[in-house]
Request: fold
Amino acid sequence: MRILFVCTGNTCRSPMAQALFESLTDLHTCASAGLAAFDGQPASEPAVTVMDELGIDLSDHRSNIITAQDQEQYDLFFAMSQNHKNALIDLGIPYDKIKTPERDIADPYGGSLDDYRAARDQIKKEIEAWLGEL
Reply:
C-alpha cells in the first residue's frame, strides 16, 4: 500500500508523520506533501529537533505540493485535520481513500518545541493505532 501524509506546508506535521511511519514499519511505502507547500523547503528546525530526540533524521526532507497525479499514485491519504480532508475531497480524492486522526493534529508551525513535541507524539500515537488496521 502507498500512503501519502498530508498537511498544509509539508515542513512540520506530514514529514514527521512520514518519518515516524517509516520508523515503525517497512510493510508499506509512504511520502508526504502539503496542500499549500512551496516545493523544496526543508523541514522546520523545531521539527528536525524533536524528531532527532527520537533518533529520526529529518534533515534531508524537502517539501512537496500535492498534485493531481498523487490521486493515482497513492492508495490512502492521511490528512492531519478535517480541513485537510475537506481540501483533499475538493481536489477529487475519494472520501474512502482519506484517513484522519481521531482529533485534529494542531499545526505547531511558529510554536514552541513543546508544541512540536505534542504534535509529534499525537502523530505517533495515531499511526501506532492505525497500523493495526492496515
Q: What stands out?
A: Residues 113-131 form the longest helix (19 residues). The mean pLDDT is 93. Strands lie at 2-7, 29-34, 76-79, 98-99.
